[in-house]
Amino acid sequence: MGVEGIGARVARKEDKRFITGGGRYVDDMVVPGMKHAVFVRSPHAHADILGIDVSAAEAMPGVIGVLTGKQIKADGIGNLICGWMIHSKDGSPMNMGAWSPLAVDRVRYAGDAVAIVVAETKGQARDAAEAVEVSYQERDAVTSAVDALKPDAPQLHPEAAGNLIYDWEIGNGPETDAALARAAHITRMHIVNNRLVPNAMEPRAALGVYDKAEDHYTCWTTSQNPHVARLVMSAFYNVAPENKLRVIAPDVGGGFGSKIFIYPEEIVCLWASKRTGVPVKWVADRTESFLTDAHGRDHVTEVQLAFDENHRMIGLKVDTIANFGAYMSLFSSSVPTYLYATLLSGQYNIPAIHANVRAVYTNTAPVDAYRGAGRPEATYLLERTVETAARELGLSPAELRRKNFIREFPHQTPVIMNYDAGDYEASLSAAMQAADWDGFEARRSEAKSRGKLRGIGMSCYIEACGIAPSAAVGSLGAGVGLWESAEVRVNAVGTIEVLTGSHSHGQGHETTFAQLVSERFGVPLDSVSIVHGDTDKVQMGMGTYGSRSGAVGMSAIVKALDKVEAKAKKIAAHLMEADEGDIVIENGELKVAGTDKSVPWFQLALAAYTAHNLPGGMEPGLKETAFYDPSNFTFPAGCYICEVEIDPDTGITDIVQFVAADDFGNIINPMIVEGQVHGGIAQGVGQALLEGAHYDDSSGQLLTASYMDYTMPRADDLPSFQLSHQNTPCPSNPLGIKGCGEAGAIGSPPAVINAITDAIGTNDLQMPATPQKVWATIRSATRH
Amino acid sequence: MYQTNYHRASSVADALKLLQDAEDGKFVSGGMTLIPAMKTRLAAPSDLIDLRHIAELKGISVEGNKVTIRAGTTHAEVATSRELAAVCPAICDLASHIGDPHVRHMGTIGGSVANNDPAADYPAAMLALGATVVTNSRELAAEDFFTGLFETALDDDEIVTAVYFTAAETCGYEKFPNPASRYAMTGVFVAKNGGDVRVAVTGAGGDGVFRSADLEAALAANFDASALEGASIPAEGLMSDIHASAEYRANLVVVMAKRAVAKARRG
Fold it and tell me: Most buried among A129, A346, A718, A768, using CB within 10 Å?
């Protein structure tokens, strides 16, 4: 490892511009003639649109145009799509309702876009938006997925009878039922995974520019995957063919999944730019973000975990209802199916698993992938159930887990996944030692003397990253391949540009990706630039989500580096009249091993471009492209332990200790990995203790639509984290990387809730464990 | 935010004239509630008349036990006043926990009491300390001043110029912040003068700040947290929302009262 190579704690290159206010976000983009857009949104959760009168708005000062759903339909702009086909267990394709970028005759959630107003200033656009008169006929609304399945529930889409999108299953039902029938013990739980609002620091934004002379569009957008945005907007929404549509995702201030999807606003801004003849910029305000960013989670699950007389898990049966909101967002269908139920085996050898998942429309914001996307839901239900089972069986939570750990690899689970490597015992032991598990009872007694309830809980998570083998996901219904591309361009003076289809919106790619190159060629980090986020610069890419940019994105770079290295060695061998196999790269030089002959890297690069003396038949230049398609998912895993103290008088929970022991495979930059874990745990603790999107049942209004009511985790809600790594390299990719972006958010919620339920002595508690809820739970437990 | 005209008043008289001349004017003295409401277009005054820079509204004076805090005094100034801390540390403690540093350097005591947010901290202190609210035209006892949720006895063209009170022998404030907004979800100010104990509650009452006669009676008999063991107050009439039911708030009132007493006794 060099000082700037693999494994080095290099400070993030991109932080200078972020910290000094030099970042360039969509809202910083200014183009000549640019005007401002505001969307008219439905104040109702469910209503028919009887008419829209834009005449008063059009007459307002500064207004350039007011456009509605009828016009966007007339211009042939398509409905939004869902990119992953799921079939119900009866073989029928999912029942997908239409989602027009601007609602035409019905609105289905509070915040649904109805019209766009373009004006000289944002203030004028806002004034005019208030003057758009929409005549609504209100309908009854339903916000809970469980309620939406009831026979008399309001119906959202004619395509989805009973609001049911699909009724899907995985695993082996009869075997699982048989296991339950012969079980010595069954632990049953009702688990609610609370709905979350992503809350990226930068709100969503779009700037659409139509160039009439060239008949060409440019879209600046807050996207985690600009190429996918271009593909979808081109192939499905009829905005423009790909060669006439450039999508740029510049600096993006956090995504957490919510910026994967293609939303109505960017499509409408592009279309409105052509319609009005001016560049159109829209930036969401915070309330719009709460209302319309795709939310996360929102599952209700019944789970049964069966044990034999030796406390071995013999069967797991899961029945989940997943709330999809008013429309199917781009990857919504995959989240509670292949990203969720395939992880239900956890770290355990469970011979029979069956999961049934019903996806349901409700009058709420669309729900899609949010940090972890399905894996937090699987981990939460399994790890709460295992902890509860240990209590019921009178075993320590560690002992029950150890009895059931998978210890041989590869391991084929009953739910598709084939785990390639791991050492669950190592993380469990490391975490217990770091947490001083054995000293807990003394700490509990001491806390009791202070009137506090102290509890400890653990969670052993596994997740799947590095998505994904294209053929495999294609066979499961994905509409795209999930490879990644890279291009390594060595300039004539030896500096290097890496073009990647991954997108960095907080992950630090400009640093970690450069470290790879620095390691390979011994060049300074500063001579390596990472280029991403622009479809005119990078040919194609699948973007960043699912902790895939290390395992997949960097693997593509490695492949391209291999090609560059091979060519460079050929040139060096030719220049030094040596055998190609004897060339080694050390400290920025290509050397003939065992001799004092060498060519500096920059001179080699220059030789490639002057082409005065290249091997016969070799093309000039030093630039290579690679596509990497993974051969398997990767399986990060670990053990988290949380220790809490609860004030029984107020119900407030204080996290006094949090230990995370993770296996991420090989690590490029430990500091960045630790940052990812810190952020992930903060979000996981947020879900466990604080956060929750709350809709009013009858009106369908989002009650938590600002920070006055939606509780984001803050520094004083969190302890210092104790982190460690027990890395087993991933065998399926060249760097041995598993991925670290979501683990914190996946592993932490059950650890927190297991600690709280340990403290208060009941297993019946749902997230978020707010002070009120914990107090009420303690009170009802004492009453009985 | 809609267009509005900003005026910086130079005196109370100037402020009154500016209001008179405005179509739909509103006084602002920190704007920690009003400005967010304007940003979300829930409030739309034609004119904002800023009282924060009026010299005669600035400053804290302490004479013996009599404390006068002029209306334009910021929370940060109250929190850090040594004079005040010498006679009534509880009010400094209260001010030091309002909002965040930005809020404390913008928000003023006059703005806070005039707004009478049901989750604001100062109204509890005013009520428990038996404060008098001084306006440009009259003086009102705190009990008469606070009349309901965001409601006071102020006339539209009346400006709070100061509050004054006699520092209690012993007093203390404790609040349980709303997890999201960090406003007081329940805050209790206790003040003891001889046998007279006042317990004022903010953040919990359906009609805003109120005094609890039951808790006052218990504490008058024995000014110690133990006097409230087993005490309860009725949930009826308390606020209920997604963060805290009326029952939970009723519990918090007692718990915060105990802690305020303990804090008061510690000094």
Answer: A346
